[in-house]
Amino acid sequence: MIEKAYYYSLNAHQGQSRLSGEPFIIHPLEVASITAELRMDDNTITAALLHDVLEDTYVTDAEIEREFGKEVSSLVQGVTKLSMGFSVHRKEEAQLENYRRMFISMAEDVRVIIIKLADRLHNMRTLKFQYRDKKETIARETLDIFAPIARRLGIGRIQNELENLSLYFIDPEAFCAIQRGIEKIRESREKQIGEAQKRLSARLDKAGLRVEIQSRFKNIYSIYLKINRQKISLEDLHDLIALRVITNTIEDCYAVLGIVHSLWVPVVERFKDYIAVPKSNMYQSLHTTVIGPAGNPMEIQIRTWDMHHVAEHGIAAHWRYKEGKSGESGDALTERLAWLRQILEWQQDLRNTREFMESLKISLFDDEVYVFTPKGDLKKLPKQATPIDFAYLIHTEVGNTCIGARVNKQIVPLDYRLKSGDIVEIITSRSSSGPSVDWLRIAQTPAARNKIRAFLRKKNRDLHLEKGKAGMERELEKYSLEPDEKETVHNNLQKYMDENHFKLPEDLYVAIGEGRLTPRQVVNTIIPYSIRKRFQKKKKTVTHRTSGNPEDAVVIQGASGLAVKLARCCLAVAGDRIVGFITQGKGITVHRVDCANLARLSKQGNRLIEAGWEEQKAYTYQAGVVVEALDRPKLLADITNTVANKQLAIRSIHAHTTGSDARIYLIVEVRNRAELEELQGEIKRISHVRKIRRSGVFVLK
User: Fold this and answer.
1) Annotated catalytic residue, options 30, 41, 56, 65
2) Is residue 424 within a helix (H) or strand (E), and if so which, with residue range?
3) Which of 202, 267, 430, 517 is least enclosed, having the fewest CB within 10 Å?
4) What is the mean pLDDT of residues 429-456?
């Protein structure tokens, strides 16, 4: 079957070449070779040879199923990307949808992702032939998505190579510097580790333990992370080389550990027993750090040959098919694939692709803590997890009725960060009103967040539906559509709903009511540009802004003839409550009454003076707005489009991000406070926006 698949793929890709100039068939052949090295079954290797024929040739899935069977056809379809026949502004959504489809296929059959990882590994090996502007993008995607997946599936050899190749293309200078640095100190470090290896080998032989001792340098990418995290040089990194002791039995592992600790002093907080408590990817080993020769810390890993095979090949080591069934027992396989099965649950709860990817990334990168129920059952959670995450891990109903928690018999707040060894007890009440929106900020696991979102959606669905429907109707009423235009808009709405996975109009209204979308965003997508242009021209004919100096609208009580200036620290606009401050030799500076600087100014004597606005005069005012949000692609574009749709001008804009947080500073022109508040309301409804507040111009310096 594999030979047949090779010639079938060779014929299908006839005449096609890669960017390197070599025949295209080399790529599926290399991908199949990687899956063979992982000892995958015949169907997986066959699917690897055929993985590009649906996307890049005229072959159909029906033909593949006829020639190679339903199982191979299903694997090829799972790996195949979605068609990229999208307009430019839809490409990002298409790529996110590719991920969504891939992970759903992966949850149904893990062999899909093993082929995909092999595909990505060969593409990274040949990335030097890719176009310059794509190299870093592909490398960063590999580091963000595919390397963490390999880690979660326990495929260490693929994870390490993907990480190193990604670093090479993202930061080649750092990669080469570390590589050169390793070569300079290799001889001295290998000499130190060699002495330790010789001494340990002699003691193990004396004890009658048959083992193999290996030594290895750390992965270049892990060295890169460590020297940047700890702000140290490569020479100061003492655990560049680790010893690995491979035994025949678990009993021998613990016997070796005892001998290691009798030879060298262990670093207590650096001991991990992953044999008794395996990682979620089923990795097992004893890890201990000791003070080795010359007083340098030295890591030693101790595992059996079976554990070593799992550490190298991960889930592929457990995936043995015979007539389409795994050789493992159902319970063991379920445990090994628990993380993958969760993806199907996320798929059911999450409403859009972006939420799905946000949840996935959180899950990919989290390390683990091990906590216990009051009955002594062990539970695994990601680091930074809280009692809320624990409650939803136990059962959805436990989470929904949670009113408090005890950790080690002490009452703790719900945002308490759990630590390994904690005994956690959830306090529940049937009269509980259920989770609140604040819980989404506290919960750390995708599973808990999704269940909280599901509860809140169900609870508030009717309210959100009514609110969203009213908002859409108000927005559509602005355009005075003709009958034929209404039909066009209706068709565009149906297309928009299909593309964004809304089955019914009610689902769309709920999304608007919840604030995940704004009526203006939807309407601007479904109303043709020609109609919107006509509306904007009509609006401009009735929009009139008085030119002149906005300070002329300020009325100072009991004073005249003095120069008046609007303070830059708070940027008051007509409609704000204001107060004047007499500045010696410079006239009067006008502040909002809630200006942070007023407390300081009021201490400078009796220099505050009442001020107000003259209602007969209308001017445009510059107003400062600060938007705090969770960073995401197109966030800035959505905000600026919202301002433009309100027919307002942006005079200044500045944005910066810290980690996953974004902060955007805007100076916009408005006629009064009501117009500004309306704009703030529109911006606050934009997806991922957490907070919006007034500001001045000083923050832009």
Assistant:
1) 56
2) strand 424-428
3) 430
4) 85
pLDDT of residue 49: 96
In the 8-state DSSP scheme, what is residue 248? Answer: S
In 98-172 the beta strands, taken as DSSP E runs, fall at none
Please count the structural domains in the chain.
6
Give a yes or no: residue 155 inside a domain: yes
Q: At what angle do helices 446-477 and 505-514 cross, to 10 degrees?
A: 100
Q: Is residue 534 part of a domain?
A: no
Same domain assignment for residues 42 and 134: yes
User: Quick one: tokens of 412?
Assistant: 């703790």
pTM of the prediction? 0.55
Phi and psi of 626, rounded to 5°?
A: -115, 125
Annotation says 56 is catalytic: yes
| Residue 180 domain flag | yes
Mean pLDDT of 291-302: 84
Do 38 and 141 have their domain in common?
yes
Domain span at residue 406? 366-444
Distance CA 345, CA 359 (A): 11
Contacts of 442 (CB under 8 A, 6+ apart): 386, 388, 414, 415
Which H/E stretch holds residue 531? helix 529-542
Q: For the residues 323-330, what does the mean pLDDT come to?
A: 41
Question: Which pLDDT score is estimated for 353?
Answer: 54
Catalytic residue, chosen from 30, 42, 55, 551, is: 55
Q: Is residue 529 part of a domain?
A: no
Q: Are 557 and 507 in contact (CB under 8 A)?
A: no
Residue 45 and residue 145 in one domain? yes
Comparing 86 with 446, the larger pLDDT belongs to 446
**CATH code of the domain containing 116:** 1.10.3210.10
CB burial of residue 464 (10 Å; 0-12, 13-18, 19+): buried
Tell me: do 34 and 154 sit in the same domain.
yes
pLDDT tens figures, 457-496: 777 777 778 888 888 888 888 777 788 888 888 899 999 9
Do 601 and 690 lie in one domain? The reply is no
Residues 98 and 242 in one domain: no
343 with 294, same domain? no
CA angle 100, 104, 106 (to 5 degrees): 115
Sequence-distant (≥ 6) Cβ neighbours of residue 638 within 8 angstroms? 521, 686, 687
Considering 503, 522, 541, which residue would you say is the last residue of a domain? 522
Reply yes or no on whether 55 is catalytic. yes
On whether both 352 and 373 belong to a single domain, the answer is no
> Would you say how long the chain is, in residues?
701
> How far is 296 from 290, CA to CA, in rounded Å?
8
